[in-house]
Amino acid sequence: MRASEVARGWRMQTVWTVLVVALWLPSLITSEAKSYEATEAGPKKDVYMVVFDQMPIVTYNGKILGLRGTSKYFSERWRKAHKRAHISDLVKKYNAYLVKHQDQILTEFFGYEDCEKVYRYTHLVNGVALFLTADEAERLAKHPRVVRVQKSYKVFKSTVHTPEYLGLPKGVWSQCGGPTGAGEGMIIGIVDTGIDPTHPSFTARGQKPYGPLRKFRGRCDVGPGFPRGSCNGKIIGARFFNAAAKKGGFNASLHFASPLDGDGHGTHTASTAAGNHGVPVIVNGANYGSASGVAPRARLAVYKALFRFIGGFIPDVIAACDQAVADGVDILSLSLGPNSPPGGSSSTFLNVLDIALLNAVKANVLVVQAAGNGGPYAKTVTSFSPWVLSVAAGVDDRTFRNTITLGNRQIIKGTGLAPATRGAGLYPLILAQDAVQGSGDPSLSPSDCQSPKLYNKLLVRGKILICTYSFDYVYGGSTMQQLVKTVQSLEAAGVALVVDSDVSGGKYEPIPLAVPAIVFPTSADSNTLLAYYNRYTKKDRSGKILTFGATAKIGNGLTVTYTRSVQQVALFSSRGPNVKDFNFNEADILKPNVMAPGYLIWGAWTPIGTDNPAFTGQRFAMISGTSMATPHVAGLAAMLKWKYPKWSPAALASAMTTTADVEDRFKRPLLAQNPSPDAYPLLEKATPFDMGGGALNINAAMNPGLIFEAGYLNYVRFLCSMSTPREVLGATKTACAGVAGKPTDLNIPSITFANLVGTAHVPRTVTNVAPIAEKYTISITNAPDFVITANPAVFTIGVGVRNKQTILFTVRATKASQASSFARITFTGSLGHVIRVPVSVVNKRLR
């Protein structure tokens, strides 16, 4: 999900749903792809994904080709073969079989007519993407060898300080070879808008040489703006996928038929996950410190499937994920998602993308996905499945304070990333409306300062111009970039921005400005400045200015302040409860899962980037969103994978979610931002629906003590508990075995009930990953309307074959309630390990 997406819910449309250009940029996402109008050649067509009945490469069990059936011998042989897929005769033979099988079905259906294939999938999904009419799609869905036909839908894009804020330099990096070694040998796959290969965050010059990695099987596409040599070892591979986008507005001159990033979003996320250490961040000539990715030595494999202006289409995204897993990435980072549960299946968990990601997990690849930017409203999470680690966005402790000193020695506090006025002297103040000359352009508000032609340059020159940050800035009619141009053209000494309401002020997010500037986001501070100006500015009876007596000087806003506060859940970050279908029925799965910094994050940028106009022409940008939080988690996952190479995706996810912070250093609960009538968000106690397990604690995650383990067959059993055996078999090519059980049986580090009736029993099994035995005591913080008990409540867990312990939790409703309520289970170890399991219940009935 894009850093700059609009903060909006699916069910509530209020003033908080406005487009905030350059900060929470628009997420104009539709649940289905664009339809392409009929032409003289025939009716309109759309891209459809067609899934066939044979299993894809990652789930192949050997039956079809007679390779020792489903025996353990074959499974191990196939696992090893999959790692060497580019040379494996087994993989090649089965891939050829799938292609032949696909073509036979399509030939049977279409006859000898040409069938326009958009993509062919064999690795994570056995299927194709076709350009079909609605009638053709409906008929093809009835073919006995076809298990699903799903219409394409769109997806959109959902650091200087954060490494220090997360404690990397003195913590994890010191365990991983320092900042120049952290993440060594790990490959993070970035499915996004591409990458700028010329950026210093990705250069191999001056770095320890990047040798070849035998496990990587990808390649480097060459195209416009992406010449040979762009993949330099740091960037280990780069591909682009635009076959579906071609049907939805792809323009080679705008979007580049290559891995080149023309948007900026992909370059930013890649640098946050694995950008080089110590890269100077210079914007508008000011140095904002040095940037570093979370895993600065990790490699980047880039898969461009999203494009500037048009976003992306799910067939391209699935093709990118399919290729990434086939290439051998360790972690898959997806800062993207739809705007609502995708149609085409009875369950959010059975849609084609989520099943493809399930197969990625089967191939031992952890998938990290942005939770979405639809907050602060409920049921807005756009990452659904328990096998995907969904990331919420937090606000860290960095503030951008500034002051203005008035001629009467009064000091008003404001905000802004801008230089001070020159020298120690004071400058006259002038209100924009008082500097207007002539009638000007009637479409422009004089107070917004968007055109220098509106003002008398002789009056403004050398003065501090007072302008208004109105809703025209919020909705995109006015921009900070044009404000700067106006100030420069008029040769003003600087600019002070007041607000016309606390609501508009609450929408302001600091961006670096090239001129002395300060913003007052509250009506109170704005009125203080205006009252001073009016008091000392003398006018005649007609309103003509006689003398400008108000003076001021703007302080240095380039000095950043750190409060040492813990994260708050960002206002725009999507909230639970999770949903299980297109009708928004609640699921027994917690989302989001964990929170990481995602507000005003510095990262690499491409000068041709369009995602945020505020940084056009720059090499770095500071943007917000769950998109920015996601690569923080992907980078940590790469370091965890480096330390624990045999851990499963579930183990990696468990380590990060169970060790997350839920309190600040004073033992106060974390807070979540919610709407308020003034300039600042209302802060309320954060719940698991806001932040999942809590705020990412990288150092604790590297030594979790206990983990909750789950694998592919556990996830299939989960699907069987809520879907028909036929649906599950069609989606996963794995039959439901025995009694399906309940969704809450899935061994994940959370307990969630959409509808708790009376008493329920929930088993959970923990695995000791510490090198020695440890005694654990379970404590429970209960909710007012349900109670949890644990059996056993105290246990000692060993190592080796005795490193597992099953606990049976009993959850009992004590009061009927429709309100969401929450509890927390804490495992406290005798050696200092502490893990936490959030519990959430929506509907409670006594019986």
UniProtKB/TrEMBL annotation:
Keyword Hydrolase: yes
Active site: 192 (charge relay system), 265 (charge relay system), 627 (charge relay system)
Keyword terms of this UniProt record: Glycoprotein, Hydrolase, Protease, Serine protease, Signal
Predominant subcellular localization, coarse grouping: secreted
Top-level lineage group: Eukaryota
Keyword Signal: yes
Pfam families: fn3_6, Inhibitor_I9, Peptidase_S8
Gene Ontology, cellular component aspect: extracellular region
Name of this protein: Peptidase S8/S53 domain-containing protein
